[in-house]
Amino acid sequence: MNCADLEKHLPNLLAGDLAEGDRMSLQIHLESCPACQEETAGCLDLLARLDLQPLEQPSSSLRERFFWMLEEAAEVGSSRPIWFWRPLTQAAAVLMLVGGGFLGGYLVRGEPDNGRPIGNRNVALMQDGTPSLRMAGIMLLSQGDSEDPAVSESLLGLLDRDPSESVRLAAVDALYLYGRRPQVRDRLAASLPKQTSPRVQLALVDLLGGLREQRALEALRALASAPGTSPEVARRVRARLAEPPL
Amino acid sequence: MEDAEVMAQVRAGRVERLAVIFERHHLHLFNFFLRLTGRRGASEDLVQEVFLRLLRYRASYRPGAPFAPWMWRIARNVHHDHLQTQRPHQLLDELPEGIPDGQDGADVHVMRDQEALHLWRAMNRLDPAKRELLLLSRNSELAYQDLARLMACSVGALKVQVHRALKELKTVFAELQGGMP
């Protein structure tokens, strides 16, 4: 290898793609050529400097604006009520501040920084605080499909007992991840008669319908024929019952 | 869950799952735009525009296809559209908004380091295409094959372009450092 060859090989070296044989030849040449050595070292040094530039943080309004946009998109794209994003934005912001970036870290790495099981930490979050925080906890859980039975149990508990309709709706959405488990399906079917909010009923009917849940047949029929059931819910149940193979 | 799986969910109608993509990528997108534009406000607008387009064009995402090249293609288009509205070859010799310049005696900040300042200024003296190329070439989410497709050239040509841009940067950087290129 000579100095003219450097022009040919340096692009590959910078791309981390120099063949082993060429690397050896280049190394031998660099040992005897200060000019090429300086050129190569200068380029590699600059690449390292580029890589080490610190990341600047955007303002908090970026996240807020994003969730507003998502809310609008969901409003346009779905007939389902928008209950989720506005409070979640606030809750996520609180979590980011109070939790020292826990939310971001979780979302990126899939597990909390301190190595505690994902489920336990967020189960606690779901059981405490405001509805917004409980929904943020649900959102965190929905990022993965935890095998921890405490997670689905906690979600089912919220569905059955949480005073906030928004939280119950969020729980229904999160429970899509757990519907493959027979015990969860049983509990979902058992929860249907307990629900008095038409919006939660509709969400649950859709979930059970989507799961093709045979165990829910009786509960669905009972809901459709109950005197207090809203016409919209009854229509949705009938539509779901008409779908094979439910 | 991989980005591609999450995006497939977004495509299928679960638009709220875009929040996962946002949390994973907004910081790098913001810094990409900040280093291209030098303006924090504009960079946040551009990040927002990327996510708006991810939503708007979600049907064009092919499930199973690598997500990062698709997203960065959109980011690149967003920046190009932004450039159309800017003065041509606007020099960004000054520090970006919000980055301390070392004169105010406030918090310690890496950007105060003289060499880092010179690197920033050297980057901003490259033309935008070269600056963009260098930034994308250091993006760990993009393999050279992906980047070559993005730039509509061969991998070999891409490597040469990166090398040339880096040489130019090296020359400008050395000048700013007060040394010989």
Automatic annotation (TrEMBL), chain B:
Keywords recorded for this protein, A-Z: DNA-binding, Sigma factor, Transcription, Transcription regulation
GO BP: DNA-templated transcription initiation
UniProt cross-references to Pfam families, sorted A to Z: Sigma70_r2 (PF04542), Sigma70_r4_2 (PF08281)
GO molecular function, one term: DNA binding
Every RNA polymerase sigma factor 70 region 4 type domain range: 119-169
The organism of origin for this protein: Candidatus Geothrix odensensis
Domain of life: Bacteria
Protein's name according to its UniProt entry: RNA polymerase sigma factor
Protein family per UniProt: Belongs to the sigma-70 factor family. ECF subfamily.
InterPro entries in UniProt: RNA_pol_sigma-70-like, RNA_pol_sigma-70_dom, RNA_pol_sigma70_r2, RNA_pol_sigma70_r4_t2, RNA_pol_sigma_r2, RNA_pol_sigma_r3/r4-like, WH-like_DNA-bd_sf
Sequence ranges assigned to domain RNA polymerase sigma-70 region in this UniProt record: 21-87
